[in-house]
Amino acid sequence: MEVLLKVLTVGGTGYIALLAVMFLLQGALIYFPDTGRQILRTPKDVGLDYEVVWLTTEDDVRIEAWFVPAPAPRGVALLAHGNAGNIGYRVDYARLFHRLGFSLLLLEYRGYGRSEGKPSEEGTYADARAAWRHLVMERGFPAERIVLVGESLGGAVVARLAVDQRPAALVLASSFVSVPELAAELYPWLPARRLARYRYDTLEALKRVSCPVLIAHSREDDIVPFHHGERLFAAVKGTKAFLEMDGGHNEGFLFTREVWREELGRFLEQHVPEGTASIGPR
């Protein structure tokens, strides 16, 4: 009996210690900026000119973005990437949107790439707002010509932005319902929902979004299960479309690139007015 009590005591102490570590070090489980500090590719590697833009957020953090212009653009896409790597890993998006007649602003989060600061949930939301202000106030793009695009974690970021603004459309790729929901599936032996200090509640944001929404997800996603995409799609009350992709979480676009381009192009043609965007002084 004494041995059993000791085993239970040691096990209980270890479990409590694990809970404390999970609670305190959640940021290290959500953000992976060190996987892509070095910029390995730029739009020039796919034959496109671009401009490095430095934005200052409302809390005075200096972040980087790349603006890739398209000739006589129909509009502009604002891309918020996933939780690992940097904008250099997303250069193929520039080629994709260029073919569709859209300029592109690739947003780098604070603490990622060459941006200053340290990533946080409220910080990434502020980063997205700074990018929106740049497109509207400095580039002169009207809201009805701006498409918000988010992959994985970035989906939660731009969904939140779409609640406060009125973009032409919102595109979410491989995005999750919320951090607590995903954590509960990844760590079923932990009270993950109660431990979660980060929300990134994409589902709640989508309930309040009024613009057309395209959800893209793969049944083979090995990180964010397919039913997350289904739940997000069901939450959208207005105009919406769903694209089922192939491949794992980080491979979906590689496996369905042509289908992705065709479906995305069709969606944008339906929801972004024809004609060239009226752009301001820059």
Explain what this protein looks like in three dimensions.
Helix content is 40%, strand content 17%. It has an eight-stranded mixed sheet with strand order 1-2-4-3-5-6-7-8, with helices on both faces. Strand 1 and strand 2 form a beta hairpin. One of its GO terms (molecular function) is hydrolase activity. Keywords: Hydrolase, Membrane, Transmembrane, Transmembrane helix. InterPro entries: AB_hydrolase_fold, Hydrolase_4. Pfam families: Hydrolase_4.
For the termini, the CA-CA separation is 77 Å
CATH superfamily: Alpha/Beta hydrolase fold, catalytic domain
CATH class: Alpha Beta
Helix content: 40-55%
Structural class: alpha/beta
Number of domains: 1
Taking Cα atoms only, what radius of gyration do you get, to the nearest Å?
20 Å
Anisotropy-based shape: globular
For the record, the CATH architecture stands as 3-Layer(aba) Sandwich
Report mean pLDDT, rounded to a whole number. 86
Question: How is the biggest beta sheet arranged?
Answer: 8 strands, mixed
Q: Give the tally of β-strands.
A: 8
Kindly list the characteristics that best describe this protein.
alpha/beta; Rossmann fold; disordered N terminus; eight-stranded mixed β-sheet; 17% strand; 11 helices
Secondary structure topology:
Layout: H1 2-24, H2 26-30, E1 51-56, E2 62-68, E3 75-80, H3 91-99, E4 102-107, H4 121-138, E5 146-151, H5 153-164, E6 169-173, H6 179-186, H7 192-195, H8 202-206, E7 213-218, H9 226-235, E8 240-245, H10 252-255, H11 257-271
Helix pairs in contact: 4-5
